[in-house]
Amino acid sequence: MSKSHILAGKRFLFFLPALELGGAERQALHLACHLKRLGCDVQVWGNSGPGLAADQCDEAGIPWAVHPSTWPCRKRNMVRFVWRVLQTVRALRQERPDVILAYCPRPCISCGLAWRSSLAKLFIWGQRDCDDLRGDAVERFAYRRASAVICNAAHEIDYLRRTLGETCAP
């Protein structure tokens, strides 16, 4: 592919549940590698790691980092939760991505709460499972702040609608 592609030079940040290699991580890495070939600046974060996904990032020349988040939030760890969201905001502001693609609930919630303070232009909520969301006010708020939602299957869309509401913000 030519470096003159319309996306060339755009900064993409993928935020994954872990830097191990599961289905969501594999999908994200395929897209990250493709965007890198188009001339995009691509980076991968994980809630935990390193693991096989980090190894694949190294092989592809894609920088990666571990950025833990705290979720679900309980009253006893509210201070830690707020601190981690603020750390995510700070890290996103430093990296200055144009687009944030988060996969699975924990990264999606963290980015949903933090991305508008990061100067990013878009945040895409990538739903890849159907059992970790509780539908509480913080989750619904984070979900509604997403620019777009991408799901693998129709049942994931139904799950999000039942658990978090009908739509995300425009």
Structure in words:
This protein has 170 residues and is an alpha/beta fold. It has a single domain, classed as Rossmann fold. It is 42% helix and 18% strand. It has a six-stranded parallel β-sheet with strand order 3-2-1-4-5-6, sandwiched between helices. Helix 2 links the parallel strand 2 and strand 3. Helix 1 packs parallel to helix 2 and helix 3 crosses helix 4. The radius of gyration is 15 Å and the shape is globular. The chain starts with 10 loop residues before the first strand and ends in a 6-residue tail after the last helix. The model has no long low-confidence stretch (mean pLDDT 86).
Give the structure's gist in a few sentences:
By secondary structure, the protein is α/β, with parallel strands linked by helices.
Helix-strand blueprint:
Elements: E1 11-16, H1 23-37, E2 41-46, H2 52-60, E3 64-66, H3 78-95, E4 99-103, H4 105-114, E5 122-127, H5 137-144, E6 148-151, H6 154-164
Parallel strand pairs: 1-2, 1-4, 2-3, 4-5, 5-6
Helix pairs in contact: 1-2, 3-4, 4-5
Global outline:
globular
Let me know the largest β-sheet.
6 strands, parallel
Query: How much helicity do the residues have?
Result: 40-55%
- Amino- and carboxy-terminal Cα gap: 32 Å
CATH class: Alpha Beta
Which strand order spans the largest sheet, edge to edge or round the barrel?
Answer: 3-2-1-4-5-6
Q: Any guess at the CATH architecture? A: 3-Layer(aba) Sandwich
Strand residues, percent: 15-25%
Low-pLDDT residue intervals, each spanning 5 or more residues: none
Mean pLDDT: 86
- What count of helical segments does DSSP give? 6
Number of strands: 6
CATH superfamily: Glycogen Phosphorylase B
Radius of gyration: 15 Å
Compute the number of structural domains: 1
Output the helix-strand order. Answer: EHEHEHEHEHEH
